[in-house]
């Protein structure tokens, strides 16, 4: 799997450390959520995460070594566009909506 900035992923908590949370992505690749993602409440929030817990995250950076930096707090941020979303480059909302409605209608008709 190719990882890109903006991609939403699920990851399993591996270890909570003073500087953040180490996670394991679905294919065994590792990522990291820095404590700054939680702001001044990190000391309180870090105790709410347990090993094995599944988190929904967004990739915010990939450095030159290929290390993946993730965010829990920014997962719904609209400025981090998911590159796998087929509608992320669409300037024509009406056209996109029409396409989605047609697909939904076709799916609905399969069951009738």
Sheet with most strands: 5 strands, mixed, barrel
Strand content: 25-35%
Overall radius of gyration:
18 Å
Q: Helical amount among residues, as a percent range?
A: 10-25%
Mass-distribution shape: elongated
Mean pLDDT value:
86
**Weakly predicted, low-confidence segments:** none
Q: H/E series, N to C?
A: EEEHEEH
Could you tell me the number of beta strands?
5
Overall SS class: alpha+beta
The tally of helices reads 2
Distance between the termini: 37 Å
**Subunit organisation of the chains:** single chain
List the helices and strands and how they pair.
Elements: E1 8-17, E2 20-25, E3 30-34, H1 42-45, E4 54-62, E5 68-71, H2 93-110
Parallel strand pairs: 3-5
Antiparallel strand pairs: 1-2, 1-4, 2-3, 4-5
Structure description:
By secondary structure, the chain is of the alpha+beta class. The protein is 20% helix and 30% strand. It is built from two helices and five strands. Strands 1-2-3-5-4 form a five-stranded mixed beta barrel. A hairpin with a 2-residue loop joins strand 1 (8-17) and strand 2. The radius of gyration is 18 Å and the shape is elongated. The model has no long low-confidence stretch (mean pLDDT 86).
């Amino acid at each position: 799997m190719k990882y890109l900035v903006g991609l939403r992923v699920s990851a399993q908590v591996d270890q909570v450390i003073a500087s953040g949370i180490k996670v394991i992505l679905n294919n065994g690749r590792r990522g990291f959520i820095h404590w700054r993602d939680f702001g001044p409440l990190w000391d309180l929030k870090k105790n709410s995460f347990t090993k094995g817990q599944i988190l929904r995250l967004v990739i915010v950076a990939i450095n030159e070594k290929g290390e993946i930096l993730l965010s829990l707090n920014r997962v719904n941020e609209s400025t981090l566009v998911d590159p796998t979303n087929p509608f992320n480059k669409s300037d024509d909302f009406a056209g996109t909506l029409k396409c989605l409605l047609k697909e939904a209608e076709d799916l609905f008709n399969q069951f009738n």
